[in-house]
Amino acid sequence: MLAQKLARGATSLRSASSPWLRQSIRSLSLKDHSWIPDCSMDTHIVHGGVCPDDKTGAILTPVYLSTTFVQESVDQYLAKGFSYSRTNNPTVKMLEEKVAKIENGYDSICVSTGMAATASCINAFMNSGDHCVITNCSYGGTNRICREQFVPLGMSFSFVDFADPKNVEEAIRPNTKLIFSESPTNPTLTLADLDAISEIAQRHGILHVCDSTFATPYICRPLDHGCDLTIQSLTKYYDGLNIGTGGALVAKTPELYERIKLIQNMHGNIMSPLTAFMMLQTMKTMGLRIRQQSSSAMKIATFLESHPKVSKVVYPGLASHPQKALADRQHRDGLHGGMLWFDVKGDPIKLMDGIKRPWTLCENLGAAESIITACAVMTHANMLREDRLKVGITDGFIRVSVGIEDPEDLIRGLDDALNSI
Could you report the per-residue pLDDT of 381-410, keeping only the tens digit for each? Predict the structure, then answer.
């Protein structure tokens, strides 16, 4: 009898559709109050289903720093939805539900970093002998883990230019199990036509995942464009304050969620409750930050296009962007984000070493602080040089993450540094 009950409990850990997974957070909160219908994304980013704590009325979800959760009896095992924080933690679960709501997914898993989310996706849906069609310009860590970890395990990857959906379809093989988009790409800001690629994936019975870290759900929600899964590095715009690291993998359906939840539980790929609590707070200003960052990025990109020390500028909001029409169609409210890049005429290292505050020389992006990065020697140094040059990441390639400072101060800082090289 006891073995049967424990087996039922173990089965419920694997089942994304188990009632306790859906009721656990609601049971901790006050009964739902009336909400006006059809709230906007800005409202959901602030509230996102979070209700005051049932016992205290606290407006913020508490931090549950508990490894384990006491069960009232064997018969009531998992009745409250929690047994061990590797499987589920109330604070982390609230963040997962809020992320899924904003991304328009069924549910999500929140893990320790964006790379952990990427690894979870590939681990969940590929095995030895399987093939993936992936963008030839992705975050450097994504490229590296495919080459260095998954290829030796018997998986294969075709790195192709996703700017033309025909390239994606031509790369599909009988053993293709996953199509991996990134839009806009890091760092070249190439866009993928998610509707067209999703149609190809559906026609061939292949899953389509999109890393939408640069866009964020505030600008583009891949699940609205036919994708099956969305990857977010929560470290970037969700956090937005250079405080914590995290990642999310969002599933469109209960079946996909069941699979990624099982992988998360087996791997122990989790987020700490304290990090989840902080991200529940920082993400509330994501919309405000992205609007400011998008506006400032457009001003800075326009300035750089006219500077004599700059040979090329790429930003999806510029008329010169080769995919401007797609950007306008796929991006929400005319927003194109806070990321841009430019190529300098001269020594990029001298530019980086000489630039003054408020610019910050470091890795990361999407934060309130403006960050400037030499990708060839920093974020994408782990790419093979020939691969890096092939996708346009030259030695003089400078990636800019625009923060929320006064754009005129940022422009003056760039102008001074450019004039000195």
Answer: 777 788 888 888 888 899 999 999 999 999
